[in-house]
Amino acid sequence: MDRLLWISMSGAKENFHSLGVRSNNLANANTTGFKADFENSRAMSIFANAYPTRAFAMTERPGYNMEGGARETTGRALDIAIRDADGLLAIESPQGGEAYTRFGSLMLDSEGQLRTSNGHAVLDSDGLPIALPLDLEGLQINRDGVISGRPQGADANVVEEFARLKLVRWGDAQPIEKGYDGLFYGRNGTTLNFDDTVQVDSGMLESSNVNPVEELTNLIRIQRQYDTQVKMMQTASEMDQQQNTLLRYS
Q1: Strand, coil or helix: what is 183?
Q2: Any idea what the Cα angle at residue 223 is, between residues 51 and 28, rounded to 5°?
Q3: What is the pTM of this model?
Q4: pLDDT tens figures, 97-132
């Protein structure tokens, strides 16, 4: 009885957490550059002063799907898609440090600072926020991440380079982890080094790599598991009531 109730209770709790992971993936199916999270559950024994029959389930976040999403042509000069599967764009994190993303929809704010369209300052190859003149004409981002344009009033053949995006490459030497805000960070708070071999395509965006059909299938599977766990708890309660009835008659 103890084992049945404990396992079903902890299983239902972790199924609920798994539903949250899969629901978040599905909600971001149309988010530019989003990378789907994986979820996994496993049984765990209790290493404490407890009955040896007790165990519980634990939901793990074993990683995330870093496969590239489909590319969409926008024709907009400040939209970029990173060509390298292991490449990332450096931005300023909400905490003021350095974070990384595949979200390539960029814009200039009223002060000329280059930001992602969701508000994060974009960093240059030295790790500093990029600021550009507001009167630039023919603004474009080259394949190597260099931002160039023509100052207002300059000759048509005059093109100046103003900054270079900080593009990085993650891997075994520079591991990353995904935060709950959807951004990537260097593991243990490290900062990834600028990599001049990472390339971008201008006028394009990378869509989310979430497979809606797969996520819906997983939601149904986990929901059925949750329902099964709840039924097990109800069965344990009924068995306990019947046991108490038998004890009263004995």
Answers
A1: coil
A2: 120
A3: 0.81
A4: 999 999 999 999 999 999 999 999 999 999 999 999
CA gap 100, 206 in Å, rounded:
15
* Contact yes or no for 55/41 (Cβ under 8 A): no
User: Which tens digit of pLDDT belongs to each residue from 67-77?
Assistant: 989 999 999 99
133 and 151 Cβ atoms separated by less than 8 Å? yes
Chain centroid to CA 70 = 16
Query: Phi-psi region for residue 36, left (φ > 0), alpha (ψ -120 to 50) or beta?
Result: beta
> Which residues, 6+ apart, have CB-to-CB distance to 22 below 8 Å?
39, 215, 218, 219, 222
Neighbours of 159 (CB within 10 A): 14
Residue 57 tokens read as 């389930």
| Cα–Cα distance measured from residue 216 to residue 63, given in angstroms and rounded to the nearest whole number | 19
Q: Which two tokens stand for residue 23?
A: 């629901």
Q: What counts of helices (H) and strands (E) characterise the chain?
A: 2, 16
CA distance 71 to 127: 27
Q: How far apart are CA 32 and CA 88, in angstroms?
A: 13
Residue type, position 153, single letter: G
- Beta-carbon contacts of 89 under 8 Å, excluding residues fewer than 6 positions away, are 80, 82, 100, 101, 102, 103, 104, 122, 165, 166, 167, 168
CB 80 within 8 A of CB 202: yes
